[in-house]
Amino acid sequence: MADPRLLLARSGASTLTVGPCWHHAGMCGRYALTMEPETLYGLFDAEPDPRAGGADGLYGGDPVRPRYNIAPTVTVPVVRLEPKVAPGDAARQIEPMRWGLVPSWAKDVSVGSRMFNARAESLGDKAAFRTALAKRRCLIPASGYYEWKALGKAAGAGKGRAKPVKQPYYMTPEDGSVMAFAGLWEYWRPADGDPVVSMTIITTAAVGPLLDINDRMPLILPASEWAAWLDPRVEPGPMLAPPAERLVSALELRPVGAAVGNVANDDPGLVDQVALIAAREEAPTLI
Hints:
Layout: E1 31-33, H1 37-43, E2 47-48, E3 67-70, E4 75-81, E5 92-99, E6 117-119, H2 127-135, E7 137-142, E8 144-153, E9 164-173, E10 179-188, E11 196-205, E12 216-218, H3 226-230, H4 245-248, E13 251-255
Parallel strand pairs: 2-5, 5-11, 6-11
Antiparallel strand pairs: 1-3, 1-8, 4-5, 7-10, 8-9, 9-13, 10-11, 11-12
C-alpha cells in the first residue's frame, strides 16, 4: 500500500488524492510524465505562467502530450514559486524549464548538459548550486523514472571489448499517482537572445529495494514537504536526506525493454513490463 504521506491528488477521482536518462551510471537521466497540464495544475495547486505561454508552452513550444522518455536538454514542466514576489505572497507556478542547470555565470548554455543532476550531499559546496539551493528550489513532476541495473558483460566475438549487459527498470508509484523530484532552478542570460530558465534534479543515496538496481536515486519528496521545499525561508537541510524506506516501498520496480535507451523512442510501449534479462557472470580473466 502507498505511504499516505505521498498522496495528494489523483486524476479522475471525485476528490483530488497525488502520491507518492541521459542514461549514465549512478544518475537519474530519464523519466516520464504522462499527465495532462490541467491535472498537474490541480495536483500541485499551481497556475500557468502566461509569460511562458501558459499550458501550451510547458514543453517549450512542442505539442503538449504524454512523455515517456524525457532526457536532459528537453524543456519540461516544473513547479516553482512565483519569482520576485515575497514567498508568503507568491503563487505556485508550473513553468517550462530546460533540463540541465545553466549557472548564471556560464559562458554558454552547453554547460547545462553536464548539470542535469546534483548530488544532495555536496550542493552547498558547489558554486553552480549553492545560491539556487538557498533561493530557487523547485519540484519536478514525474509519473516514473528509469534506471539501469548492471548484469555483467556479454561475451563478444572478435577483438572488441565485451559490452556491458544492463536491465532497464521503470520506477513508478504502484497506485498510479505522481512523484515530485526535488530540484533547483536558475536563470541564464546570454549576451544576445532570450534568457534560459533551467533546472537540475537532485539525487541521493538509494534506499530499500532500489539499492538492488543502483546506488543512487532522484530525491523524491513526500507531498507533506512540497510547500517547505519551495519556500526559501525554510532551511532545506533536513529535506535533503534520503527518503524513508516506507516511501520507496510504494514504488513498483518494473523491468522494461531496451528501447528506452534511445531518446528517439517515446511511446507508451516503453513502460510495458518485459521478462527479465538473465544475469550474466563475469568471465574469468587469464593473467
